[in-house]
Amino acid sequence: MKSIIPNALTALNLILGMGAIIATFNGDFYQAALFIIAAMISDGLDGRVARYLNASSEFGKELDSLCDLVSFGVAPAILAYVFLLKDLPGVSGYLIAAFFATCGALRLARFNVNTGVVKGYFMGLPIPAAGCVLSTFIMLGIKPPSFIFSIIVIISAYLMVSTIKYPDFKGQGEKIRMIPVGITIVISAYILFMLTFSISTMLFVPFFAYALFGILNTVFGLFDSKPIT
Amino acid sequence: MKSIIPNALTALNLILGMGAIIATFNGDFYQAALFIIAAMISDGLDGRVARYLNASSEFGKELDSLCDLVSFGVAPAILAYVFLLKDLPGVSGYLIAAFFATCGALRLARFNVNTGVVKGYFMGLPIPAAGCVLSTFIMLGIKPPSFIFSIIVIISAYLMVSTIKYPDFKGQGEKIRMIPVGITIVISAYILFMLTFSISTMLFVPFFAYALFGILNTVFGLFDSKPIT
């Protein structure tokens, strides 16, 4: 019965995700993005509460993935569509939004099947991070050309299904290289400096930095000296 | 590699579900409902193709649930919201739409955990049927008072998480009683007679009849003579 609390938090994640879609309908993009960030907080709490109460369950894990797809796959994709993708010619905006949601679903299904194999890191950008990159970018209030924005959406989607290793902040796992850390800090500081200082900027930059770091860390990993066999 | 075909059909289910949400945005409710029905056809095919190709996989099952939530939980809930629920006072329309999606997620999580226990029937109205009851109702073009419509949404949502047994059309399983079958046929025939004859009517009545039959079959089951112990 004590599993009710974490499962209620998971359901709250979905309810907030639905709020994001409805706020998008009402044309309030800022509120929609806030709903997605609130869903991320709720999503971060449910697992912790479940472990603390010793109430982790198979049911809870299934429910968690289902709700994550709505809040961080579908809601950001719809937000991105109404924000800018709809201006693309023909059905291309729709297809790019659907591509983002589909990559999110593939990411979640792979994660559930691979739990026993992938340990100490995340394979591919986690879906809450990808959803929050898009949402916090939209919060910035910048309207780039829709073509540029579509590239941001496609890259975020691809990072989810990629095999790029992302740190899970629980120690061990993938090696963290110092040069990529340095480059990420420099680029993030530059963006912070370029953008108007606001809560939106403070939210966007960490998600952007996390997504960027995984790419740089993987690229620099290719140059690691390997023992000759 | 042959699992690509069924998984592509599952992804198509999600892409069509996203199409339904976007059509709802554009105010084309009829097209949105058609997208949901097309998603149901795609969803019906993927499992069959996977079994035929002997390519059923854990990954495919996870992906299937994820896509079902979007196409038959979220898309019909958003469609119902924009169609009529938004006219309800305050945030009640939003909460009813979120309730429908949440019941859908709970139904899918329970289904995945119970696959070994529940055999020969469905426990609770399957989510594609619940989503299609709402979608095909909206296709009819009838606008009931939003209060009445909200009751239809709440009942459809509740039926998903109920323990009412629904036939799975593979024989055996739950006993099918003749009196409920008769009542369902009479009521369905009456509705067919009352509504204008159209494709929408031909689509709505079978889903309505299926949802109704489960309720009647359960109610009549309560009167079954039980052996005295």
- Name the helix and strand elements of chain A from N-terminus to C-terminus, one letter apiece: HHHHEHHEHH
Radius of gyration of chain A: 18 Å
The portion of residues forming beta strands of chain A comes to under 5%
**Strand arrangement, major sheet of chain A:** 1-2
> Span from first to last CA of chain A?
55 Å
User: What is the number of helical segments of chain A per DSSP (H or I, 4+ residues)?
Assistant: 8
Shape of chain A: globular
Q: How much helicity do the residues of chain A have?
A: over 70%
Could you explain how this protein is built, in words?
2 copies of one chain form a homodimer. Chain A is mainly α and 229 residues long. The first copy, chain A, contains 8 helices and 2 strands, in the order ααααβααβαα. A two-stranded antiparallel ribbon of chain A has the order 1-2. In chain A, helix 1 (4-25) packs antiparallel against helix 2 and helix 2 (29-52) runs antiparallel to helix 3. The first copy, chain A, starts with a helix and ends in an 8-residue tail after the last helix. Chains A and B meet through helix 1, helix 3 and helix 4 of A and helix 1, helix 3 and helix 4 of B.
